[in-house]
Structures are given as C-alpha cells and as structure tokens.
Write a structure and sequence with these properties.
Length: about 270
C-alpha cells in the first residue's frame, strides 16, 4: 500500500512513541495499583489511595517501581493492549465516517463508474496511476466487473504520488467525458511506466477520442473539482494511501484477493436477501 508522505508510518514517530510509552506506563500503574490494593483489602485503603501526603506519594511510587521491576511483562502487556485499543478506536471512527459519507462514496454523479451503474453491491476504489499495488489490483477489479453483472464499481481518482499522477487522473476523467473511461483507465493500468503528456495524448488518439476536446476537458474546472472532492472525501474517511477499497460500507485491505472480494460481495447480497 502506498501512503502519502504526510501519512507515512515513520512520520512523526518520536511523538507517537512518547504517546504510546506514556499510555503504557499509565496502564501499568493502574494494574500495579489494583494489585497493591487487592493485597491490602484487609486494611484501610486510604493509606494507598488517594495520596494526600508527600510520604504517601513516595511510598506509592516506590511500590509501583518495585512491582514493575518484579513484573516487567506488565509494561509489554499494557503497551499491546494500548495498541489494540487504538486500532479498535480508529476502525470504529473510520467505519462511522464511511457510513456518514456513503452517498458521496456510492452515488457521486461526477465519479467514473465501471460495471453496472444500478448494481446491487458497490465497490469503491481510491487509486493512483503511479501506485504499483493499484496496477496489481486493477486486474482483480476488471475480472470482478466481467464476472459480476450486478456489481457497481466507483472509481475515485486520487493522485497523491507524483505530478504525473495528477496529469494522468485529469486525462482519464477527460476520457470519461467521451465515454471511454474504462478503456483509457485499464490501458494506463496495464502500462504506467510512461505517463507523459505525449503518451496520454497518443492513447487518446488510439481510442479515437476527439483530441481537441480531450485536451480542453483535461484543463476543465469540473475535472479539477472532482479530484479535489475525492481528496476531501478520502480525508474524511481516513483513506490515506492507495489503493483503498470499500465494499458496501466495509473498508477492505489493499491486498484483498479476488476470491475474498467475491466472498464479501456475496455476503452483502446474502444479508440483503435475509
């Protein structure tokens, strides 16, 4: 999966590490406090919590320190739990964002559509023509469309990797205006080593497009607006890299196989029928 530079996993790692470490220590302290508390059930718990004096504070700190030295796995366990909770929270937020933006995802009148525009299941893909993983996924998407007459695939042009990506996205959207998006898109995905303007224009001619109209449409305001709208939508749903897939209202990993896509699509149909 390709990520934009701002969202690369190594971006601002020092800040993330500090945050995780702080949370880990806090969780470990909570566990330690709970253990100490259980050990002193028979006594007055106010001697441990709340901490009212400097002596109580120092005693508590020493107890926690000793506990963690004797049980270092607590830090690892709490860090693991913290990461699990963070991932769960992020997934819940992303799911809510997808559901809240489902109309823009499924039914934008300006986004290209492959397959059946009235299909009963919708697959959405955010992609970049410079993304090698998008090229691999393109063959899967193409096969899904060919095999499933009731599948609607919404293509979200998401050029984030290079200036050439932007030009290619504009070219594909210009081809859409002459009814040749499918052919133009898959031609670029089949061979993206050259995304120069000369190649983009030559491909338009190969597909018998009106070249003057094609060039005008590449510069059209509505084409630029579609790309900007897609970027805003990607930000709202947390799609930071390419390819990003959504089937129905479910976010799907970029390395999902053809068989896994088919199974998910069938699952959605089965739920609708029940």
């Amino acid at each position: 999966m390709f990520l934009s530079k701002k969202n690369h996993p190594s971006y601002n790692w020092a800040t993330l590490r500090k945050s995780v470490l702080a949370s880990s220590i806090a969780l470990s302290t909570t566990i330690a406090l709970g253990t100490i508390g259980h050990a002193q059930d028979a006594t007055d718990s106010s001697t441990v919590f709340p901490l009212k004096t400097e002596e109580q504070t120092k005693a508590f700190e020493e107890a926690v320190k000793e506990y963690l030295l004797q049980n270092p796995e607590v830090i690892i366990d709490s860090l693991t739990r913290y990461q699990e909770l963070q991932a769960q929270r992020e997934e819940e937020q992303k799911q809510f964002a997808i559901t809240s933006n489902v109309e823009d995802l499924h039914n934008s009148p300006t986004s290209p559509v492959l397959g059946n525009p009235d299909g009963d299941v919708v697959l959405v893909e955010f992609f970049d023509y410079r993304c090698p993983y998008c090229h691999k996924a393109a063959s899967i998407v193409k096969q899904l469309v060919e095999d499933d007459p009731n599948l609607k695939v919404v293509m979200k042009e998401f050029p984030i990797l290079s200036p050439e990506s932007m030009i290619a996205a504009r070219a594909a959207l210009a081809a859409m205006k002459q009814g040749k998006y499918d052919a133009y898109h898959f031609a670029l995905m089949d061979s993206a080593s050259d995304l120069s303007q000369d190649r983009l224009f030559a491909l338009a001619e190969d597909l018998d497009l009106d070249l003057d109209q094609f060039k005008d449409d590449m510069k059209a305001e509505e084409v630029g607006q579609e790309i900007l709208s897609t970027r805003a939508l990607a930000q709202r749903i947390g799609a930071n890299g390419t390819p990003a897939f959504i089937v129905g209202t479910t976010s799907v990993p970029p390395n999902t196989s053809f068989e896994e896509f088919k199974a998910l699509i069938q699952s959605i149909r089965t739920k609708k029928a029940s």
